[in-house]
């Protein structure tokens, strides 16, 4: 079961990482629906190339940590680092699912935008899954 959860997490994180790389190099598919927006569907910010690459690097690093933890422990990498990293990943995604109490997460106040609708249906539940599954994988 743990290997299955890890493979699912690795796949999701890798796909999201590559999607951010696609956006960094000018891709437009789904970009406007992935940014928090006002009720009038105006994006709150427009991330640049550097921001997209940093997020992509983080997501791909998270995927690599699941690979290391579950399938290929690297002796030169301290186990406490991998373990604490998975706790941190779980916390990051759980906090993202809860949200900022305004535009993102289950506790958001702005609920009448395209992003808010997609966030409620897909993005926040996905983050909650990644958070909880990270904790479960780490406890194994």
Supply database-style keywords.
membrane, 4 helices, mainly alpha, 140 residues
Notes on the structure:
- The chain is mainly α and 140 residues long.
- The protein has helices at residues 2-24, 49-70, 79-98, 114-139.
- The protein is 65% helix and 0% strand.
- Helix 1 packs across helix 4 (114-139), helix 2 (49-70) crosses helix 3 (79-98) and helix 3 runs antiparallel to helix 4.
- The N and C termini lie close together (10 Å).
- It is built from four helices and no strands.
- The chain crosses the membrane at residues 7-25, 45-68, 80-99, 122-139.
- Keywords: Membrane, Transmembrane, Transmembrane helix.
- It comes from Fulvivirga kasyanovii.
- This is DUF3995 domain-containing protein.
What's the helix and strand layout?
Elements: H1 2-24, H2 49-70, H3 79-98, H4 114-139
Helix pairs in contact: 1-2, 1-4, 2-3, 3-4
